[in-house]
């Protein structure tokens, strides 16, 4: 693990995920809805010649929907040989997190976050929640 993390915002929360999981960041230009998809699946987009499901992290984190802005991004990630997009409010930063700054989440956070928060870290005076991408995506077949 190289310590690089992509930092993004969803609501008032600041989150991060390992850059090793990230294929690319894309501007949000809309999605094609999928009938019968789970509530947190915003739809699909075409990227790199393939159709990619997009998980709306606002819906997944049980936050109210917002009108998307020019800051909205889709973070394309690879999890278990699947490519999935994560729709976030903004993502503009890649930082290095030393292992000494990463700790297990407090028990209450771990218990209440549905396994979404893998660890927490301090960086530049901010507290970041490092997400567990596999748990955020969920077990539903997305592709």
TrEMBL record:
Pfam families attached to this UniProt entry: CheW
SMART domains tied to this protein: CheW
Classification via InterPro entries: CheW, CheW-like_dom_sf, CheW-lke_dom
Biological processes, Gene Ontology terms: chemotaxis; signal transduction
Assigned GO CC terms: cytosol
Superkingdom, natural source: Bacteria
Boundaries of every CheW-like domain copy: 2-142
SUPFAM superfamilies attached to this UniProt entry: CheW-like (SSF50341)
Protein name in the entry: Chemotaxis protein CheW
Taxonomic lineage of the native organism: Bacteria, Pseudomonadati, Myxococcota, Polyangia, Polyangiales
């Amino acid at each position: 693990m190289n310590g690089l993390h992509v930092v993004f915002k969803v609501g008032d929360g600041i989150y991060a995920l390992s850059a090793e999981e990230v294929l690319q960041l894309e501007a949000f230009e809309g999605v094609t809805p999928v009938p019968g998809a789970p509530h947190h699946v915003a739809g699909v987009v075409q990227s790199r010649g393939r159709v990619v499901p997009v998980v709306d992290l606002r819906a997944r984190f049980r936050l109210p929907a917002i009108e998307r802005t020019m800051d909205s991004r889709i973070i394309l990630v690879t999890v278990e040989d699947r490519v999935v997009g994560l729709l976030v409010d903004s993502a503009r930063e890649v930082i290095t997190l030393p292992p000494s700054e990463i700790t297990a989440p407090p028990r209450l956070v771990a218990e209440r976050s549905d396994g979404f928060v893998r660890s927490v870290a301090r960086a530049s005076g901010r507290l970041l929640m490092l997400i567990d991408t596999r748990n955020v995506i969920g077990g539903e077949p997305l592709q």
